[in-house]
Amino acid sequence: MAEPYPHFLPELYQEIHGCLKEAPATPSGLRRFFLLMLRGHWSDAGNHGPDLQENLRCLFWTPEKNSPVNIALQGASNEQTDPYSIFLSLGNFQFKHMSMRDEAEIEEDNATTITVMPATAQLLIKHEAPSADQAFDMAWSTLCFLVGFRPAILSALGGESAGFFPQVVGEPRREENAPKTRFRVDVGAALTLNVAVTTNLESHKLKRVALTLLPQ
C-alpha cells in the first residue's frame, strides 16, 4: 500500500497507517488522516497518471515552505497566498434518530453505559489554481486517488463496516476575493460512521464522558 508513495513516507503514509490500529477517535484525528493521505498522493507528480501529466507535471507537495502545491486544513493562515493550493475540511456531522433503549449498552459493572449514534459526515477538498483547467485537473487527480484508494481508506477506518463515498466534482469558479486571478474546484465525499459515547457513573454522579468515532 505504501509503494506508490516514494517520498516522505516516514512523515506521511507509513506513519499514519502504522498508528491506526483502530479508527481515529476524534473528528480532528479523522481530518488529519485524510490530510496526510492527500499529501502522500501529491508528493509525487507521477501519481497523477498519463492523462493528467501534461497539465500537472510540475505540481507536487513537499514539506518545504516553497512547495509547488500547498496542502493544508481549511482555515490555515496561508490561504490564498500560494498559486496552487488544496484545502481540506471535514464536518456537517448528522446523527440518525435513536432511542436510548435501542442504542444504549450497559456494561457488567452497571456504572458504564455505551450509547452508539449512527452518523454521516462530509469531506470537502478545495483545489485552487491560476487557471480553471489546472484547478479542474487538480480536482480530478484527487478524485481518482480517493476512488482508487477507497479500499485502503476503508481498511484504515475499520474495514467493510465503514462507509466512504466520493460524490461530486464541482465546476470551476473564480474566487472573487483572491488578490490575483484564482479558480477553485471542489471535490466532495460522504462518510458513514458510528459515534460511541461512553458514560461512567460513580455513586450516581456523572464522572466521565468519552466520545469515540467508530466506522458504521
Could you please describe the fold and organization of this structure?
The protein contains six helices and eight strands. It is α+β, with helices and mostly antiparallel strands. It has one domain (13-215). Strands 1, 2, 3, 4, 5, 6, 7 and 8 form an eight-stranded mixed sheet that branches.
Low-pLDDT stretches are 1-14
Number of domains: 1
Number of helices: 6
Summarize the biggest pleated sheet.
Answer: 8 strands, mixed
Q: Give the oligomeric state.
A: single chain
Structural class given helices, strands, pairing? alpha+beta
Order of helices and strands: HHHEEHEEHHEEEE
Distance between the termini: 23 Å
Number of DSSP E strands: 8
Inertia-based shape: elongated
Summarize the amount of helix as a percent range.
25-40%
Précis, in short:
By secondary structure, the protein is an alpha+beta fold. It has helices at residues 13-19, 27-42, 53-56, 100-103, 132-148, 150-157; strands spanning 70-73, 85-95, 104-106, 112-129, 163-169, 173-174, 183-202, 205-215. The chain contains six helices and eight strands.
What is the secondary structure topology, with strand pairs?
Elements: H1 13-19, H2 27-42, H3 53-56, E1 70-73, E2 85-95, H4 100-103, E3 104-106, E4 112-129, H5 132-148, H6 150-157, E5 163-169, E6 173-174, E7 183-202, E8 205-215
Parallel strand pairs: 1-2
Antiparallel strand pairs: 2-4, 3-4, 4-7, 5-7, 6-7, 7-8
Keywords:
216 residues; alpha+beta; 8-stranded mixed sheet
